[in-house]
Design goal:
Blueprint lengths: L1 H19 L4 E6 L12 E2 L2 E2 L2 E5 L6 E2 L10 E3 L7 E6 L4 E12 L6 E7 L6 E7 L22 E5 L12 E7 L16 E12 L3 H21 L1
Antiparallel strand pairs: 1-3, 1-13, 2-4, 4-7, 5-6, 6-13, 7-12, 8-11, 8-13, 9-10, 9-12
Length: about 230
């Protein structure tokens, strides 16, 4: 009985090791609290490793106004179709990428965006399309450092179905202005702004061969000892 108990504990440990490899880790997180952007970047992630940049086809003013429940965000003006915020990370040893972020525009800032991805920084594919709320649009509160984070401005996408994003040296994720429609339903103005905050890239560790070997060995050893104990 004692032998079976010890075997059971050992196998449980092996199973836990294998299961632990499936949990999602934060690859990179940008809160923009330490960077407080006033340029296009790049800006290092506050948690993990990666860089954030902005890109506009015309001169843009970058700033760090209040975030969604924090002191700073990443904001810019002069939006044209194809302008974007970009977040780059490495997924070496990782799989099942997900992205979450907060985003809002001023009344004359852009409303419609696409989430795009690339592994070479040149050729991008569109994963999803989405629309942002105007900052403070009723009944949602305006972004403020003195107010709790509002879920109304939060987006998330699970990119785990795109296996090409797994285990790559460079993964580029872009939030791209899709058209000229403004957040208030009119046309995007040159002084209209869009801002992002609380950008988080997560992924799960790829199971290491050692863990797989230990799982097989543990179960095989367990079966053999069970037979001997009978």
């Amino acid at each position: 009985m004692k032998t079976n108990r010890h075997i059971g504990i050992a196998v449980a440990g092996v199973l836990a090791l294998a299961a632990g490899a499936a949990h999602a880790d934060t690859v990179a997180q940008w809160t923009f609290e330490s960077s407080a952007p006033t340029t296009a970047g790049p800006f290092a992630a506050e948690v993990g490793s990666g860089s954030a940049t902005g890109s506009h086809s015309t001169a843009s003013t970058y700033s760090a106004p209040a975030g969604n429940g924090s002191a700073h965000s990443f904001s810019s003006t002069a939006w044209s179709v194809g302008d974007y915020y970009q977040f780059s990370v490495s997924t070496l040893g990782l799989k099942d990428v997900s992205l979450s972020w907060d985003q809002t525009s001023s009344n004359t800032g852009p409303k419609d965006f696409t989430l795009q991805y690339s592994t070479d920084g040149t050729h991008f594919s569109t994963f999803n399309s989405y629309s942002v709320l105007a900052n403070g649009a009723s009944p949602s509160p305006a972004w403020s450092s003195g107010r709790a984070r509002s879920a109304a401005y939060t987006f998330s996408d699970d990119l785990s179905s795109i296996s090409a994003l797994n285990n790559v040296t460079n993964l580029f994720l872009r939030l791209v202005d899709a058209d000229t429609v403004a957040a208030n339903g009119g046309t995007v103005g040159s002084g209209g702004t869009d801002r992002v905050d609380n950008v988080i890239v997560t992924a799960s560790p790829v199971p290491v061969p050692a863990a797989i070997w230990l799982l097989g060995s543990g179960l095989f050893g367990f079966a053999r000892l069970r037979r001997r104990a009978r």
